[in-house]
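Dear U.,

For the methods section draft, I wanted the exact inputs and outputs in one place so we can describe them consistently. I've listed the two proteins in the order they'll appear in the manuscript figures. Please don't edit the C-alpha cell lines directly; just add comments below if something needs changing.

First protein:
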Amino acid sequence: MKLKSVVPALVVLGICCSFVAKLADPPFDELLKRLQDYNKKYPQEKVHLHLDKPYYAIGDDIWFKAYVINTESGAPSNISQALYVELINEKDSIKTQLKQPLSGGISWGDFKLPDTLSEGNYRIRAYTQWMRNAGTEFFFDKTIKIGNSWANRVFTHTDYSYSKENTAEKVTAKIKFADKNGLPYTDSEVNYDLQLNFRSLAKGKATTNAEGEITISYLNTQPALYKSGKIVATINLPDKQKATKSIPLKATSNAVDVQFFPEGGNLVEGLPNKIAVKAVNSSGLGEDVAGLIVDNEGTEVNRFESTHLGMGNFVVNPQPGKVYSAKVKFKDGSEQTFALPKVLPSGYVLSVNSSNPEKIVVKILMSADLIGTSELKLVAQHSGNVYFVTKATSQKQIVTASIPKKDLPSGIIQFTLFNATNNPVAERLAFVNNTEDRIKAGVEKLNPTYSKREKVDISLLSQFAQKPIQGSFSIAVTNTASVKPDPENETNILTSLLLRSDLAGYIEKPNYYFLNNDEKTAQALDNLLMTQGWRRILWKNIINNIPPNIRYQPERSLAISGTITSYGGKPLPNSKVSLFSSSGGFFAIDTLTDAQGRFNFDNLIFNDSTKFIVQGRTAKNKKSVDIKLDIVPGQIVTKNTNTGDIEVNVNEALQAYLKRSNNYFDELTKRGLLERSLMLNEVKIVEKRNDAKNSSNLNGAGRADFIITAEMLQNCVTLSQCLQGRVAGLIIENGIPYLTRNMFSSLSGKVPMQIVLDGMHVEADFLDNIMPNDVESIEVLKSVGNTAIYGSRGGGGVLIITTKRGGGFAGSTFAPGIITFAPKGYHTIREFYSPKYEPGTTDSRPDLRSTVYWNPHVVTDKEGKAAINYFNTDEAGTYRVVIEGIDVMGHLARTVYTYEVK
C-alpha cells in the first residue's frame, strides 16, 4: 500500500526502552519540514519501458510501453507530458529518437530496425526533460542485443586472451570471418583499427588463414587509461565488395577489482563492524572470491567468501593500533592483498538487518567515548518521504529498533543517523519487498494447451487488497522456442521502478532479487545495497538549503516560443508574431509579444518532421526584427555503464533466434511487407557543378526546367521583380506566381504555382516575404516530368526556393522577420499487427511471428476485467505471457503465465 509521509512524525514500533517516547526538537523538526517542502517543490520522475522481447534482429520492430511515476506521490506522473525514447548504437550515437506524448504517466510506441543497421549492443534510453535536472543516472538505460542474419554477409566470432609484460597488458584477439552458412572467408585481406576509449591506437593489415581467422595483438602500456574499446575490421570479399565489422573489446586484461564497504560508512575501533565485499572483473561482471582478514602483525581475524555475483560480507572488531588487510584468492589460484578502509578511533556504526520477512531491525552502536554525550535521531525515508523518525538517548552503547515492513513502502529505504547538531553521521540502505503492495494481475479462461493458429480468448483480472481495481496494463506474448527468456537478467517494472532507479551503476541480473522472497535472496540484495549504495536525497543539500540546479522545465505540451528583438537586441513589446505550417494542411495563428518581447504558441499538436514558419513584425508592421526561438539543447549520450550486458559475439549469441527470424523476414519480403535496401556497386563520382546543391527538390537537387541562382537576384528588391520576365511562361500577378498555361485551366479559376521554401510548402502569396539577398537558388518546375512527383499540389507548377542558411537546420533565418523551424513533434503511434484466423477462412502462408501478441494499453473496467484475444502462430512451443501494469495510485503489476502450443 502507498503510505503518506508525516513530517515530522514519530512512528516507534517495537523499539526498546533506549528510545524516548516523544520527539521534541524544533531545529530537527525544521530540518524534516525542509525535506518535505523540498520533495514537494522538486519532485522527481522515474521511467520504465516494458519491451516485447529481450533481444531483436534487424528487420524487427521494438515495441514498448512507457510507465512514468512521480517519486513524491508514487503515482503515475503528471509532471511531464512528453517522453524521449532513444535507440543508441555502440558508438554512443543516437540512431533514432522518438518523442512520445504522455497521458497519465503512460505512453507507447515502437522502433523499426531497418537493414541499414548493423548487429551490435544497442541501448534504449528513456527520459523526460524534467528528469535531466537530476542527471542521467536516473534515466531508463538498457542494453539490448540486436543481431543481423537477414541482411548480413559476414559473420564474426572473436576470442580474447590476456597476458602481462612488465607493467603493460597484452591483448590478443582471434577473429574468424565466415558467411551465413558458416563457411570461412579464406585468403581475404582484412584492414583493422584497434580503438580504446575512442582513440585509434593500432592499425594494420592481415590475411585470413584456411579457417578464415586472423590474429591481432596489442600491448597496452597505459592500462589505467585505456580499459575498453573496439576493433573495427574491414574484410575484402571475393566479389570485390567490402564489409566492416565493429567488434567490442570489453577489457584489456583479466584483472579483478575488489572493494570493501563498512556498514554505515565507517570502521570504528572496539565495535563489531560488518563489511561488505564486491569483486568485479574487467568485463563488469561479479567474480567469486575468497580470502583471509589479517591485522598488521599477520594474525588472522576472519575469513570470507563471496556468495552471489562476487558479493559477500564478514564481521571485524577492530582493535586499537591495528591495521587490517584482506588476502584475496581468485578462481585462477592467484592472490592479491587489499587494504581495508581506515579504522576510526571514535564514531557510530549503523547496522540494519532486513532478512526477517516481517520486520527490519536497526542497531546503533557507538564508541565508548560517545556514551551519554549526545542525543541521536534516526530517520527512515523513501524517495524523500519520511516513514520513520525518532530520537534516542546515548546512555547505552547499543540501541535497537524494530520496524514492521508492512508500514514501509516497497523499494529502497534510506536510514540516516543524526547527532545532536543534526548532522548525518551514518547511513544505510535497506530493501523492502512487500508483495502485498502490488496488483495481482491474473488471467481467466487460459487453457494449459492450445493448437497452432488457435484463438486464445482470455480475460485479465486485476485486484488490489482483494478488491477489483482499474489500471493500464501491457501484455507481451512470445514463444520460448525462439525467444528464450533469461529470468534472472530480465528488466521489468519492478527492477526498474523499485531498484534500478534508486541505485546508480550497473546491476547484474536485477530480476534475481525478485524471483524469490526468501532469506538467501534478501541477503544477496542486502549485499548489493551495501556495496552499491547511492542516495537520491543528499542531506547536505537539505541542511544547507541548496536547491537543485533546475535547467530544464517540465514539458506540459508542444509549444513554440521565443523573443522578438530589434537588431540591437532590445525586446520589442506588442509585436505581431505569426505561425504558419502547411504540413497536413495549411495552418496559421497569430499572437502579440508581451512587455519583454516574448511570445508563446502553446498547446500545439503536431507530428515529427512538421515544419513551421515564424514571422515577426514590429508594432508598426516593420520587418526589421530578430526572432530568437527557445530551443532546448539535446541530451548528450553518456558512455554505456551496462558493461556486463555487452556481448562480444552478438550474432552467435542469438543464432537460434536469428535463424527463425530470417525465415519470417523472407516471408514478409515475398509478400511485399518488408523492403531490403539495395546495395550498389561502388562507383567514383566526379563532381559536376550544381546551382541548387542544397535544395529540397524531390526530383533531386538541380533537376528543374530552369534555375535562378543567387547571382541573378542581386539587383532585385522583391522576388516578384526577379522572376517577372526572366522565365518563359511564368508571370506574376499581385505578387502571386502563375504559369501562363494555368491562367484559365480550371473552372475554379487560376491555379498558382506551389512554393516550397527550404522543404516546406507555403502559400503562393508568401513570395514577397522572402528577401532576394537571402536566397541561394530558385528551381522552376514546369514540365509534367518534374512536377508529377508533387502530385496535385504541383499541377500549377512549383517553385523550389532554397535560402542561403536554410539547408536542413532545425531553425534557420532566411529573411528579416522570418524564421523556419522544425521542432521535435510526437511520434506517430502504430498498431501491432495480429492476424485473425476465423472459422471457414484459409491462409496457407506461414505465420512465423516471434512476438505472438503485443498490446500496450489494456484497461481494466470497474470490475477489474478486460477481454484479450489473439491467435497463435504456426510454431509449437511454450508460449510466455508477460503482464505489467499500474493503477492510478501507483501500485505495480508484474505477472508471467505460460501455456503449450502443440
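Second protein (the one for the lower panel):
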Amino acid sequence: MDQKKMGPYRLEATIGSGGMGTVYRGIDERTGDKAAIKVLPSHLSHNEGLRERFQREIETLLQLKHPNIVRLFGFGEEDGELFYAMELVDGRSLAEVIVKTPIKSWRTVVRYALAIASGLRQAHDMGIVHRDIKPANVLITRDDKVKILDFGIARLFGATGVTMAGGIVGTADYMAPEQAFGEGVTPKADLYSLGALMYAMLARQPPFRGNSVTEILDKLRYNEPIPIDRLVEALPNDLSQLITQLLDKNPENRVPTARALCRRLEALLELPEETDFDLHLADHSTKAPSAPGDEYELKEAEEEAPTLDPQARKLAEAPTMQLSEEESGRDRKSPSHDGATEAPATIVTQRGKKDAPQTRFTTVAEQRQRTSEEESRREKSSAWINYLQIGGLLIALGVVVTVMFIAPQKPDADQVYRSIELSANDGNLAEVTEQMDDFLERFPEDPRSEYVAQLKEELNLRRQENRYRLAASMGRINQGMHPVEQIYLDAMKTNEYDPVAARDKLHALIMTYGPSDAQQGDVARCLVLAERRFKQLNTAIASQSKQQTISIRERLDYAQRISSDDPVQAERIYRGVIQLLQDKPWGSNMLDEAKLRLEQVTSR
C-alpha cells in the first residue's frame, strides 16, 4: 500500500496525537529532509474561514526563527485536510522528563525557564501569544536544549479568536485565570503558564490539582497555590518570590514582559554556587502541622516519587486540551477505584488516604498579611471623606507628575535609531517594526528618517517576496493578484528551467508597467522586485556566457590546430559548436567562424 502524502512530505510513522490533530514523521521527497507533520482534524479542515486564514498567517509564523522555538516550515492542504510542517526534534517532552527523571537542581529549572522565556520574548515582540505553554509543548533535546512546540496552533486558533466547539484552546493546569474565564489574553498569560511550568518542574505537580476540570477551574478562580518553598526545600528566596509573582491572578501584578523575566532569570543564575542543593519535596516533619481545612497535602517522606498513570500520561502528552462550555459546567466525578482520576491535569502526584478530609494550613506570615490587609481596608474606609476633600488636588498633582516624569521616559531619537540599526545589521528587521514606525512618527525631520524609511520599505519588500513564493508553491498565482504580480510569478517559474526567457519576461514587464516609482502599493513593490531579479539574472547570464565563450573559443582553436592531421575530429568539433551556438546571440561571431572552417575541412 502506498504511504500517505501531505504536500511534498511522505508520512512514515505516527509520532503522537491529541485533540488538535495527529503528528507524523515525514520526509520531503524533493530534498530528503525530515520534518514533523501535524494534520488537523477533519472538522477543522472543513472550516472555510480557517482555510483562508492559513495563507495569511504563514508569513508571520515563518519569521519565528529562534533557537528555542521549533521552527515552522509551512502550511498546506492535501485532499481537503489541512496540515503544517515543522522542525523534527530528537528528544523528549518536558512532561516525560518530569515523570521519569525528576529535575534535581533549581539551576536546571531556571535554565530551562530562561530558554522558554527567550523564545516567548521574540514571539511576543511579533504580537504572537502562545496560549498553551505546558510540559507536553516543551521538548528537551538529547544535548539538553529547549524547544517550544505549537506556535502555529497558538496563532491560528488563539490570536484569531477561533476556539473549538465554543470552548477554550489551552490546558487547565497551566492556563492563566483570565484565559480560562474568557477574558482578554495578553502575553502575560504566557508568563503565568511559564510560572506554572516552573512550579511543576520543582514540585512535580501543577499549582492546582483536582478530580475534574470544574474543580481545577474553581481553584484557579478562588484559591492561591501553595507556596513553592513549602513544597520544595533549598530554593533561593528570589526564585520562590518570582514564581509567586508569575502565578498572581491579576496580570498587572506579574512580571511585565518576557524580556524583563529573562533578566530576572539571568540574575538567578548568577547567584553563588553555595546556594546549590539537590531538590527534594518537603516532608511533614519539616513543616508545621496542617490545620483543619488545609486544601494542600504535603508529600509523605515514605511516598514514592510522583508518577503519571496511563490516563494522565495520555492527557499530559496531548498537544492541546479543549475546555468546552459543557465540560466547564459538568459536575465533578469521583475518582475511579484504581486510583486514576478524571482530571485533565498534566502532572499528578500520589495522594494519601482517599477518604482523608481536606484541611487548610495558613502560615503566620500569611495570617499577618491578611490581618494587615483588613486593618488597611478599615483605615481607608474611615479616611474616605478626608480623601475626597483633597482628591481634586491629588488628581491635578498626578497629571503634573505624569507630564514631568512619564513623558520624558520615552526613548529619544538616538536610542530608537540605535536599536533599529543593531537589528538591521543582524538581519532582524522584523523585530523592530514598531521602533521604525515610532521613529518615523516622532522624528520625521531627523536626517536619519530617510534611512529608516528605506529599511521599513525593505522589510515590506521581503514580506511581499515571501508571499509570492508561498503563492507559487501552493499554485495560487492567479488568485486575487494584479496582472503585474501574475507576470512576475510566471517569470520566476520560468526561471527554474530557462533563465534567459525569465530575464526577457522581466525586462518586458518593466518596460510595460515601469518604472516602479510610477506605481503604488503592492504593484510598485512587485516592480522593484522585478528590477532586482532582472539585474541578478542579467549578471548571472553574462557571467555564464563569458565562461562558455572562453571554453568554446578554446575548442575552436584546438580544432584549427588538428585540422590537418585529424580532419574528422576537427569536423566533429565544428559541427558541435554550430549546434550549440545556433540560438545564442552572444556567440554569433564564433558561429560564423565554425561554419567557415567546417567548409574548409570538408572541401579538402
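Candidate sentences for the figure legend, describing the second protein: The CA atoms of residues 514 and 527 lie 7 Å apart. The longest strand covers residues 9-18.

Thanks,
Y.
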